[in-house]
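The records we work with from here on pair a chain with its fold. These numbers are not coordinates but entries in a learned vocabulary of local backbone shapes. To see the layout at work, look at the sequence and tokens printed below:
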Amino acid sequence: MSEVENGGFISRVIGPKRQWREYKARVKQLPPNYATAAEAIERYLMHFVPTDAGSVGSMFEDLADLFEQAAANGTPIREIVGNDPVEFVEAFVQNYTTGGYVTNRERKRLTDAIAHAAK
């Protein structure tokens, strides 16, 4: 493996790990109720599988940004996520790579299969 290839491999492995650690450190600094909410959303998001590390990294960075700003402004958690946290997270995920999540792929697969069967 050349030095350039090796450097690319290392940055692909270390970059997301570093982003993850930074995200976790940011969440840990939140007030307890905001940290609990962010961690609950994080657990839910772990059921989605992004197609690329860049998307998942920016998704968690944005989640941390959202809760940091809300905590700084004193925004109630229900004002952030609404009455249906699942709906909130589903909408939040849509801001990242289209088709990059298992759910979207399965929805597309179902839609395509039905369209094919209906011809």
In short: Helices lie at 3-28, 32-45, 53-73, 77-81, 85-93, 102-118. Confidence is low (pLDDT under 50) at residues 1-7. The CA atoms of residues 15 and 53 lie 9 Å apart. Residues 3-118 form a domain with the c-terminal domain of poly(a) binding protein fold (CATH 1.10.1900.10).
